[in-house]
């Protein structure tokens, strides 16, 4: 199991003061610095999320990742996730080919449907078309990366005739693709059959709630004849540790409550897509004052135990994406948690699971 860094770019005031710890320009620079720091600490990958028209303030993660690419050498750079249904696949193909060239072939891309309906409204789309849009856009995107000349027609965008995108990707073919889901076995089966990675959004409920989705993915992947060694499953954990003697759980609690209250307000006000609504209804709503299963907070041993248990509960995780900066947490506290994680957690997880860091 490798360890990655993830941020969805929530930009929230500190729950203690009601004030922002950093200005928006400072926060944006912090996210870039966070990923650069992650490489130095031994994280294997960095993942940024895309949202629009809300306080998840990162709308174009590929630009952010390009800034990271210019300052790093080894860390993999991906999105968790890009909103495939809302984006033009031609522009995505160009953007991520550019990122792949700048990074020397380190780009990856995760695709999901998002957690709010209003994105479709403001992009002039019908949310009922979400699955059809994703299917059509994914097919075209891969052709643009894999084929030298593309002639294509579909339902949702203008046709293409003898189009060759520039630039090409570093390899000349599609970059690694991951399909995100909560508990949709259909999406897991699609990812496995196509040979893509599976990104399990383990943000609600418990890790065992998602075990069947991972199982379906692995079975579908192998049944389709893909090399089992190339399967990729990733999941999410929210992480906080400290080195200053302050109790990490007590310190973290107001921030996780702040974050969860924000997401609850947002999805209730803006509407939930069918897939996300089903996830909420299936794994259940939890009391925001109760620690979530995906909150791995405490000392190094409790975090290590939590990561190893999650790996076992899910039937094997290739990459655990660790979220440090949510809920309005200040840069100094984010850095502290990451430093402790890099020094004390990453080496022990690598030793316990037989994986390499970085």
In short:
By secondary structure, the chain is α/β, with parallel strands linked by helices. The chain has 11 helices and 12 strands.
Overall description:
Helix content is 44%, strand content 15%. The chain is an alpha/beta fold and 358 residues long. It has one domain: Luciferase-like domain (TIM Barrel, Alpha-Beta Barrel). Strands 1, 2, 3, 4, 5, 8, 9, 10, 11 and 12 form a ten-stranded parallel β-sheet that branches. It has a two-stranded antiparallel sheet with strand order 6-7. The model has no long low-confidence stretch (mean pLDDT 94).
Mean pLDDT reading: 94
Question: CATH superfamily name?
Answer: Luciferase-like domain
Give me the secondary-structure category. alpha/beta
Count of spatially separate domains: 1
Q: Any idea of the CATH class?
A: Alpha Beta
Provide keyphrases for this structure.
358 residues, alpha/beta, TIM Barrel, ten-stranded parallel β-sheet, two-stranded antiparallel ribbon, 11 helices, 12 strands, globular
Q: Helices and strands in order, then pairings?
A:
Blueprint: E1 2-7, H1 24-41, E2 45-48, H2 61-69, E3 76-79, E4 82-83, H3 89-102, E5 109-112, H4 118-122, H5 130-146, E6 150-152, E7 160-163, E8 177-181, H6 185-194, E9 197-200, H7 211-223, E10 233-240, H8 248-270, H9 274-283, E11 295-297, H10 300-313, E12 319-323, H11 331-353
């Amino acid at each position: 199991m490798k360890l990655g860094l993830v941020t969805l770019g929530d930009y929230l005031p500190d729950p203690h003061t009601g004030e922002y710890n950093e200005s928006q320009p400072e926060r944006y620079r912090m996210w870039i610095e966070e990923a650069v720091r992650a490489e130095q600490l031994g994280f294997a990958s960095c993942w940024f999320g895309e949202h629009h028209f809300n306080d998840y303030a990162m709308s174009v993660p590929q630009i952010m990742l390009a800034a990271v690419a210019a300052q790093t050498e080894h860390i993999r750079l991906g999105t968790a996730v890009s909103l495939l249904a809302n984006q033009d696949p031609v522009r995505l193909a160009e953007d991520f080919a550019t990122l792949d060239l700048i990074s020397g072939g380190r780009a990856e891309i995760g695709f999901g449907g998002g957690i709010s309906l209003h994105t479709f409204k403001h992009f002039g789309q019908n949310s009922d078309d979400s699955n059809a849009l994703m299917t059509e856009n994914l097919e075209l995107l891969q052709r643009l990366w894999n084929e030298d000349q593309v002639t294509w027609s579909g339902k949702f965008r203008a046709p293409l005739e003898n189009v060759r995108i520039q630039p090409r990707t570093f390899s000349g073919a599609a970059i690694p693709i991951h399909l995100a889901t909560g508990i949709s076995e259909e999406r897991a089966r699609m990812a496995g059959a196509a040979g893509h990675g599976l990104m399990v959004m383990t943000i609600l409920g418990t890790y065992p709630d998602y075990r069947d989705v991972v199982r379906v993915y692995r079975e579908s992947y192998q049944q389709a004849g893909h090399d089992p060694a190339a399967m990729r499953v990733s999941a999410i954990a929210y992480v906080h540790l400290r080195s200053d003697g302050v109790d990490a759980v007590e310190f973290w609690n107001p921030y996780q409550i702040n974050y969860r209250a924000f997401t609850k307000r947002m999805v209730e006000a803006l509407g939930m897509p069918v897939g996300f609504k089903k996830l909420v209804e299936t794994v259940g709503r939890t009391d925001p004052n109760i620690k979530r299963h995906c909150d791995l907070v405490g000392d190094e041993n409790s975090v290590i135990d939590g990561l190893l248990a999650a790996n076992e509960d899910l039937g094997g995780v290739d990459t655990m994406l660790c979220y440090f900066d949510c809920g309005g947490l200040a840069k100094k506290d984010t850095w502290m948690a990451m430093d402790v994680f890099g020094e004390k957690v990453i080496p022990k997880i690598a030793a316990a699971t037989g994986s390499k860091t970085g």
